[in-house]
Design brief:
Chains A, B: It comes from Actinacidiphila acidipaludis. The structure is a homodimer of 339-residue chains. In chain A, 43% of the residues lie in helices and 15% in strands. Chain A has helices at residues 16-23, 27-35, 42-55, 61-68, 86-99, 113-123, 139-148, 168-181, 197-212, 227-232, 234-239, 250-262, 295-311, and strands at residues 73-78, 103-108, 129-133, 151-154, 163-167, 186-190, 216-220, 244-247, 272-274, 290-291, 321-325, 328-329. Chain A binds a DNA duplex (16 and 16 nucleotides) through residues 1-3, 7, 15-17, 25-29, 31-32, 35, 39-41, 44, 59-69.
DNA sequence: TTGTATGCGTTATCAC
DNA sequence: GTGATAACGCATACAA
């Protein structure tokens, strides 16, 4: 079956067989020396490891996977890698997975549910589990994938599927209270992606807290999370009569800042702006009041849930739902209501 | 060898055997229906594909890899996924790889050459090739890896290894000319990571162009590419007597803008700032004059090089070195020398 | 054009 | 404690 020339990829990499030969033992013994050393005499283990080291032997994961049905790989699928709250999460997932001995596939769905579904289908046969960040797929589709492989969701709340939720409701509520405390009476919420769990959560939190404090709350659509969308929303924002805005995320908030600056409206003197996710930190001008994100922790936690479940032989746990609290970080874009 | 319970990962996924059974053909025919349809009668192909579809058959990549020595996977390794010029590149790599039928592993070296080396070693046995962005590893180490697997570098210039270089020298030279044209006589270059090819290239371009135009050029170290590093460099910047700065990248430039704003120094009225990479677009205040990046194209090109080389049976081409030109994007942070 | 037989590198089940 | 050997799922020489 082998073509005439050596295979393209691994040309004559040492196999378990060559190690066995050099060590003067059987292939089975070599295998055991790595997977179950306690079954062997210590000196045998040493002998085998020595031979392996000399040959530069590395186990072939494809063969291992074929035999065990386990791959040593995870996949992380995200809606938009360019969104700044994603990379820290990826980074945390990668670190945590690496520490647990897993390599990580990355998939970018570009906010397209169909593409996300396809990605999962293609990745399934070579991963042990998935981390899905802010999945845009339908609940039924997610459930189907969860049946094929262990799967942990981040910022998507589906009962029965392990999930890590960054609970921005608390932080957003604090933002509303903060603005109310500064005397604002009419407040706008600038929406994010419509299918986003986070957006629904934040919108609700603004509304509820605003109602409680007797504020008027208007909700403005933005459709996308982007700088431009924020800038373009400024017109509607000013027409709404609000004196302060809570934006779905920092990108939108930054766009709003730019749009206000263009119109010569001073922040926070004439208008207050709060963001969410704390991804731009103090990088805006003025430094943005925002809600802390904990994206790194969310990623790390998701992998912990996944690997612990994989370790326990895939035994389904009861419903797991981890909430990560958030708090308001007051910087310099919020101030007293203009008089 | 199978343990009593079904394997953890793929429980009874349909195999080529089940498809063969349903379609009433041999397993070899099923295999050929997917890999070499032209060898079969069209109706046979149709019959097989039909059965496969009904069963939801997905080829097992581990078995395929074991048999062919090809994996259908690429790995992309980056120094720091949080650096905003990286995600667009990853995104492009992913798209292009996906289009060519490859899945993508992502590795984050955290700027650590040893970690990068380890990552590659662990990934090697399950990928067909690598894209290394701004690798921090030693040249000999890279060459060794390149011997094990086809490998394309981005922004790292090693003879004999295919590489895609974003040639910011041109854009940076334009920036210096632009500043000279505005009357600046003393100019600073704010450095980036010391082991970075891009940093060396940009520093040289500033120096050379400055010399040519009779400007005084001072080079300031920054060690890191970060907002804070830029802000902290402002003191040294002002002491240097320069009236304009070209920063290694936009992040540094943005930090400089913040540091200047803190001191009440107006941009571009009293000081001019230019960045590089165009990752913040118009998101700074004022919108940043910078050098275009083309990170997406670089990523896509790298994958093209890689897959074309893989397609051609791994036959080594002669030296490949793709340069992507850049140009200056003038926005609002550069202006006439203060009088 | 299609079927048969074999091997890819590993783990696991038996023997010894 | 260790050695044969049969899977795992697929691709391919070879036979028909």
């Amino acid at each position: 079956m082998r073509s005439s020339e050596p295979r393209a990829a691994a040309r004559s990499a040492p196999t378990i067989g060559s190690v066995a030969e050099v060590a003067g033992v059987s292939r089975a013994t070599v295998s055991r020396a790595f997977t179950r050393p306690q079954m062997l005499r210590p000196e045998t283990v040493e002998k085998v490891r020595d031979a392996a080291r000399r040959l530069g032997y590395v186990p072939n994961p494809a063969a291992k996977a074929l035999s065990t049905g386990r791959f040593g790989n995870l996949a992380m699928v995200v809606p938009d890698i360019a969104n700044p709250y994603i990379p820290p999460m990826i980074s945390a997932v990668e670190e945590q997975a690496d520490a647990a001995g897993f390599a990580v596939f990355l998939g970018n769905s570009a906010e397209d549910p169909a593409r996300e579904d396809l990605l999962l289908r293609k990745l399934t046969p070579q991963v042990d589990g998935f981390v899905l960040a802010a999945s845009r797929m339908g609940e039924d589709v997610i459930r189907r994938h969860a049946q094929a492989r262990p799967l942990v969701l981040v910022n998507r709340d589906i009962e029965g599927i392990p999930r890590v939720l960054i609970d921005t409701a608390g932080g957003v509520a604090q933002a509303v209270e903060h603005l109310a405390g500064l005397g604002h009476r009419r407040l706008a919420y600038l929406s994010g992606p419509p299918h986003s769990w986070a957006n629904a959560q934040r919108r609700r939190a603004v509304k509820r807290t605003g109602d409680k404090l007797g504020l008027e709350v208007v909700t403005l659509p933005a459709r996308l999370s982007s700088h431009d969308a924020g800038r373009q929303a400024v017109g509607a924002l000013l027409e709404s009569g609000a004196t302060a805005v809570v934006a779905f995320d920092d990108l939108l908030a930054q766009g709003v800042l730019a749009g206000l600056a263009e119109r010569g409206i001073r922040v926070p003197g004439e208008f207050s702006v709060a963001g969410c996710d704390d991804v731009l930190a103090a990088q805006t001008f003025p430094p943005l009041t925002t809600v802390s994100a904990r994206a790194r922790e969310a990623g790390a936690t998701a992998v912990e849930l996944l690997t612990s479940r994989l370790g326990s032989g895939g035994g389904a746990m009861s419903d797991v739902r981890v909430m990560l609290d958030t708090t308001l970080v007051v910087r310099a874009t919020t101030g007293p209501r203009p008089v």
